[in-house]
Every structure is written in C-alpha cells, then in structure tokens.
Amino acid sequence: MALVPCQVLRAAILLSYCSILCNYKAIDMPAHQTYGGSWKFLTFIDLVIQAVFFGICVLTDLSSLLTKGNDSQEQERQLKKLISLRDWVMAVLAFPVGVFVVTMFWSIYIYDRELVYPKLLDNFIPAWLNHGMVST
Question: Which residue ranges traverse the bilayer (predicted)?
C-alpha cells in the first residue's frame, strides 16, 4: 500500500493550488470590491477548476488505495464512477480552460501588458503569485 509518486504529486499540486487560492483571497485588491469580485477573472475561475480537479484526483487515488484487495462489486462500481467523473472534468473543464487561459494571457501579455496585467497590479499581486495562477 505504498504511495506511488503520481499520487504524491497530485496531492502536492492540490496543496499548492489551495495555497495560491488562499493567498489570492487574502490580498486586498480594488477589483475584489467591485461587481463579481475575483470571479469575473477567467484566471481565478481556472484556478478553482484546477483545484477541484486535483481534489477529485486525490480522492480517486485514496479510494483506489483503500479499496485495493477488496472484492466488493459496489465499491468497484463507485470507483469507476469516480474515475469517469475525473476523466470528464479533465476533458471538458480543466484541460480546455487551462490551455486557453495560459495561451491567451501570455499572448496578450507579450502584445500589450496593460491589457491583461497592468503595472498597477504589481503593488497588489506579487510576481510569483501571478505566475502561479496563470502558468500552472
């Protein structure tokens, strides 16, 4: 019942996403007080989708570790449903939105930084947090 490096990596990614989410919410930005708050930014929505996806991955890994060696048909059926949910979230939400956010953000950033990440935001969001939210 040893943990596979893939499972440890998924748990580490989930923890990093949660730490970025908590750090982002702790920042007092003017945009958080306007209509929609941080939910109006596709980058933030993508970060939440990725955190939910990796949470489902960790839950799937834990379920498969706990049911390994069990011959219960009901547990196998529930595990298959969880795996199909994980695959659906990856194929429909996590991958397409993630790729779109990264490519569009950095393309527009290279073209004209002020359109997507004005220099004013450097006072509120550290460079590492911006990189963590967009690139990962």
Answer: 42-67, 88-111
